[in-house]
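Minutes, project check-in
Item: structure for the 83-residue chain
Input as provided by the requester:
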Amino acid sequence: MNALTLIPIGLVVAAALIAAVWWGIRRTAHRPTPPSPADHPHYPADPQRPPGEVQARPGSNELPLQDTRLTPHHLHDHDHHGH
């Protein structure tokens, strides 16, 4: 290619880069501002317990704690085969 062909290509590339920067600046200008510190949620009074947390109590369907490992034949009340 000769120089007369490269000059218009260079001008088109430069114009595209300028347009991209201009478009990026416009997009950034139209973004909403970040929220103020007053708009952020506040930490709970007790950091160990998140707000709305319900502490579960053991129900009757839970297995009792034992020192030995349970095997399937120990679980007579939990038969899943319908026998």
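Outcome recorded: The helical segments are 3-29.
No further action items on this chain.
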